[in-house]
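Figure 3 (text version): structure tokens given as input.
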């Protein structure tokens, strides 16, 4: 058990993060804050924050208990955030949920003004810089990767992912953070000095930022739907083959095959299915010969066609036509 005096010493231990030149937030006289931290009382001495009308700076450094540690950041404006995860891991509730780990810089934004974060147990240390929305157009003009920030709606009504990009923490970035230790708290000049420091940070982060890669699973799902659409539009073409489809999708044959794994049909199996359905439709209301239909639908021979048709629909082509055109009850296999 820690006695009350020891606990008091722990709680009043001097903050030693990069923003250690800042006094505790409740001792700083500022205009109405655009940034509110919802955090438990025991952790009040484990973070520092500062703001002006353009930016918010926030740092948290603490060894947490054996339970995940949730807290919220509430703002009065939308912000583009640069999160430098120095130690520990956790998650941020954006779309989709952003799981963060140490040694990485993340750039993200969120349309809602209350940001829920959760830190994993253990040592945690992160530095967070928020850039107010009225600066976004100017940033986007200078850094092309930021051109889509704030454009939440797509043509199909779905939201864009809110992670703009990420990059590893480099030595130059650590040097920039270390330079903050030479700052002094001066109520008039501090905002100007921090804003100038931001420019250095922007160049170090935004020029190295890499757009998030789509998960492999999402990529294959998208490819599958694009490929099936293409096949539906072109299955009547005799020369249609796997290589032709892959070239049209601008992917390798192997990747195209992967997108059809665990699906009902293979690539050419789907082509064959559409051609069999077309043949069935022709049989329904025509007197075309079986050989003619097999030729029109690009089967190698009438015998091959008849064998595949019977396997798919339960009756051979002639039997099927007699059943349908003779109004005989018939159900094909699904």
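Below: residues designed for each position.
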């Amino acid at each position: 058990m820690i006695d009350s005096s020891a606990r008091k010493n722990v709680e009043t231990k001097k903050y030693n993060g990069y923003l250690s030149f800042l006094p505790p937030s409740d001792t700083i006289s500022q205009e109405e804050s655009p940034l509110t931290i919802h955090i438990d009382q025991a952790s009040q001495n484990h973070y520092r924050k500062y703001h002006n009308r353009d930016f918010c700076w926030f740092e948290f450094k603490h060894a947490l208990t054996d339970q995940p540690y949730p807290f919220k950041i509430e703002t009065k404006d939308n912000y583009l955030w640069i999160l430098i995860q120095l130690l520990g891991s956790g998650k941020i509730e954006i779309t989709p949920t952003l799981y963060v780990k140490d040694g990485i810089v993340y750039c993200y934004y969120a349309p809602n003004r209350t940001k829920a974060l959760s830190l994993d147990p253990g040592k945690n240390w992160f530095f967070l810089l928020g850039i107010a929305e009225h600066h976004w157009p100017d940033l986007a003009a200078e850094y092309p990767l930021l051109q889509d920030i704030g454009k939440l709606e797509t043509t199909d009504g779905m939201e864009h992912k809110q992670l703009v990009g990420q990059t590893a923490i480099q030595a130059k970035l650590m040097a920039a953070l270390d330079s903050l230790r030479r700052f002094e708290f001066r109520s008039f000049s501090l905002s100007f000095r921090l804003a100038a420091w931001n420019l250095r940070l922007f160049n170090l982060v935004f020029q190295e930022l890499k757009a998030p890669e789509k998960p492999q699973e999402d990529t294959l799902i998208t490819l599958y739907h694009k490929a099936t659409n293409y096949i539906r539009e072109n299955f009547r073409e005799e020369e249609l083959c796997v290589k032709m489809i892959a070239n049209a999708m601008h992917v390798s044959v192997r990747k195209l095959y992967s997108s059809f794994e665990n699906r009902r049909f293979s690539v050419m199996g789907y082509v064959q299915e559409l051609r069999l359905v077309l043949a069935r439709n022709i049989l329904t209301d025509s007197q075309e010969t079986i050989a003619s239909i097999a030729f029109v639908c690009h089967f190698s021979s009438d015998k091959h066609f008849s064998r595949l048709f019977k396997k798919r629909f339960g009756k051979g082509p002639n039997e099927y036509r007699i059943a349908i055109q003779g109004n005989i009850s018939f159900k094909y296999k699904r």
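Residues 1-12, 152-159, 328-334 have pLDDT under 50 and may be disordered.
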